[in-house]
Amino acid sequence: MAQSRKIGAIGLVMINLIAIDSLRNIPLTAPAGLAVIALYAVAVIIFFIPCAIAVCELTGKWPVMGGLSIWVGEAFGPNASFFVVWLQWIYNLTWFPSITAFAATHLAYGWTFTTHQNIISLTDSPAFITTLCIILFWGATLINCFGMRSASILSGIGTVAGTLIPMILIILLGFSWIASGNPLHIASTSFSYDHGSIMGLFVVVLFSLMGLEISSAHAGDVNEPKKNYPRALWLTVLIVPLSLILSNMAIGMVIPPSQIDPRAGLIESFAIFFSKFHISWMSDIIAFSLFIGAFGAIGTWSFGLSRYLNKISERGYLPKRFAENNKNNVPKNALVLQGIIVTILSFLYIWMPNVDTAYWYLSCLTAQLALIAYVIFFIAAIKLRLTHKWDKKTEYVFGPTYLSVFFYTLGIIGSLLGLFAGFLLPGTDISLVTFNIMLGSGLLIICIIPLIVIHLKKQKNKLQSLKN
Q1: How far is residue 16's CA from residue 18's CA, in Å, rounded to a whole number?
Q2: What is the chain's Cα-based Rg?
Q3: How many separate domains does the chain show?
Q4: 56: exposed, middle or buried (C-beta count within 10 Å: 0-12, 13-18, 19+)?
Q5: Phi and psi at residue 263, in whole multiples of 5°?
Q6: Residue 277, number of CB atoms within 10 A of its CB
Q7: What is the model's pTM?
Q8: Residue 63: domain span
Q9: Can you give the CATH number for the domain in which 69 is found?
């Protein structure tokens, strides 16, 4: 019976697709047109493939839940592990105002399509976006307080409705568009990219490929893990970039690059497709579907992140109150703290010149923080590969040690290139210098906080040892 509950390679691929594959960043990259293919090709070689190799080798060696925190802890100790967990926690918090803005935009489109009361213009209102961001995040937080079952239901509905169905549909519609002989706007788009440096999009492309390490949590549930786990990861490496490229091409074919909205380009593309094929009523369904998917993602990730905070508190880096659970075994105080932080971050939509600039800033800050964590991850992978022996009979070994180290070094280079690219953001309504000062300040403050916490913990431990 235990064997029958194990998942195979295809099952694990589906879990990976749910965790990584997403349409949310596509409107940001689609204006680059055919250049997206080159961006994804480079990102796969110097980031995604090194990630797959590292996750395969390290999961086989340490098949326990925890991913980056476990591997970095094995390489550099508990303080480094805490630093990485902090980065994973905080970069997801900076991501929430972006995804809630995406959800708010599609809710407005769905309302307009259904009631024929045009409220789309409200999506450019900072007050409207900020208010809905706060309401949506606290709504997801409330659902999570009822426990894992309600969070799982929200996650399942959101994944199917907001990711799998729309992604498959837009790719099929793209092929139908070509077969019908419609004009292709993407043909006139090249590497020149009118909105600014195309290198600035590289960090968004990298962000679209992040999350492969999350599958390490399921390694113990895979049938014949030494064979099926790597097979699943390599299938994921093939499917995810291909699906994202095709989705980018589908949007680029129907909307001129200069007219693709970073938040609403997706639903606008669907509306054009549906209008052309005389099924405009489908726009209502897809708009609400994308909203449900985004709302589901908010609930799923906020619940998972509260567990991160829970573990940090249990290890003594934060007050114990954040490790407390309610009667539904939910870390209520951690969820409330996340809600407060996201509420504060949501006001960036009011402080910035406009909604799109704030959206770009939050998306870029999120990706930059994540890339810092990945740099540490690849350095840890190199150290572990050099200092531990791998048993080829029971553990996955990609090849000779030097080959793994070569790809991990590529991963470091790819992550550092992404960090550099984040400071070359395509044009916004504020100067590049101002944007970079804000971005650099945000990165510096966020990275200093865990260092202060580590220092305070060391001082506390010294005082306790003196007392003893």
Answers
A1: 5
A2: 22
A3: 1
A4: buried
A5: -105, -30
A6: 13
A7: 0.83
A8: 3-467
A9: 1.20.1740.10
